[in-house]
């Protein structure tokens, strides 16, 4: 027996929506690897604890990127055409964050991961009844993204005016890239999932 088509399914057809999700998630992981790579370029200037965190987080993002690429291959989805923008922007953000020292790096991490966490939450809610296998992949990845976010949040003072401006700037860029890469579906889906 076929599942009934809901208003959400009409507005967000599974094939198109899932393809856009996978493209933006894969590109986001490519950007995240670039952020941590840019930061690690300056590892000689950083303390061992920060370098250890960056190496672990980068390894997680490489695994996430591979998981999304595998899910794309299984579903016949090609990479996002704006992937290069994610990589270049991520690398630039990573390098820029180093100028703030450990606190700048952690603020950058917190801002990016906070945006990613909300984005993945919407995707998981949408995919759970439509592609539970992919939803499970996203849930597993989200656990590590939340760990990164919590580490980032613990490593800087959010009440600091410059940190607040910096994290706001990074969050805006992250949300804008997600919006552009999904042709606005990310924002519309987020609103639809909450209504």
Which keywords apply here?
about 200 residues; mainly alpha; Heme Oxygenase, Chain A
Short description:
It contains eight helices and no strands. It has helices at 7-11, 14-40, 48-75, 83-98, 101-127, 132-154, 161-181, 185-194.
Structure commentary:
By secondary structure, this protein is mostly helical. The protein has a single domain, classed as Heme Oxygenase, Chain A (Up-down Bundle). Helices cover 81% and strands 0% of the residues. It has eight helices and no strands. The chain has helices spanning 7-11, 14-40, 48-75, 83-98, 101-127, 132-154, 161-181, 185-194. Helix 4 (83-98) runs antiparallel to helix 5. The longest helix is centred in the first third of the chain and has 28 residues, at 48-75. It is globular, with a radius of gyration of 17 Å. 40% of the residues are buried. The model has no long low-confidence stretch (mean pLDDT 91).
Indicate the proportion of strand residues.
under 5%
Quickly name the level 1 CATH class. Answer: Mainly Alpha
Give the SSE string. Answer: HHHHHHHH
Terminal CA distance: 27 Å
The name of the CATH architecture is Up-down Bundle
Task: Tell me the helix content.
Answer: over 70%
Q: Which regions have little confidence, pLDDT < 50, spanning 5+ residues?
A: none
Number of helical stretches of at least 4 residues: 8
Number of domains: 1
pLDDT average, as an integer?
91
- Please tell me how large the radius of gyration is: 17 Å
For the sheet with most strands, the description reads: none
Shape: globular
Indicate the structural class. Answer: mainly alpha
**Number of separate strands:** 0
The name of the CATH topology is: Heme Oxygenase, Chain A
